[in-house]
Amino acid sequence: MQPYLDGTWPGWWTAEKKNQLVSQMLAEPNPEKQQVLVRELQQFQWEDMPWLRCGEYFGLRAIRQEVVGYENPPNWYFWNCGFAT
């Protein structure tokens, strides 16, 4: 879970609906139903929060199929790559 889901994290967002959705996500054993709750939480965040903190440092690497020509070096450099048509 992301730390900003906990309202006690310094400077972070608190909302009763967020707390309800997080509690439901944690209690739901069905992965498909969890995914629905995650999407609901994400939509609520975009509607209710004035901004989103991306993080101080993290090593998550991800890529989409639409991005072509990307090599995965230690850092993200998007030279000579673009979106697939």
Task: Write a brief caption for the model.
This protein is mainly alpha-helical.
Walk me through this protein's architecture.
By secondary structure, this protein is mostly helical. It has a domain at 3-60. It is 35% helix and 5% strand. It has a two-stranded antiparallel sheet. Helix 1 packs antiparallel against helix 2 (31-48). The longest helix is centred in the middle third of the chain and has 18 residues, at 31-48.
The main β sheet shows up as:
2 strands, antiparallel
SSE sequence, one letter per element: HHEE
Shape: elongated
Extended strand count: 2
N-to-C terminal Cα separation, in Å? 35 Å
Average residue-wise pLDDT: 78
How large is the share of residues in beta strands? under 5%
List the helices and strands and how they pair.
Layout: H1 16-27, H2 31-48, E1 67-68, E2 82-83
Antiparallel strand pairs: 1-2
Helix pairs in contact: 1-2
List the keywords.
85 residues; 35% helix; single chain; mainly alpha; two-stranded antiparallel sheet
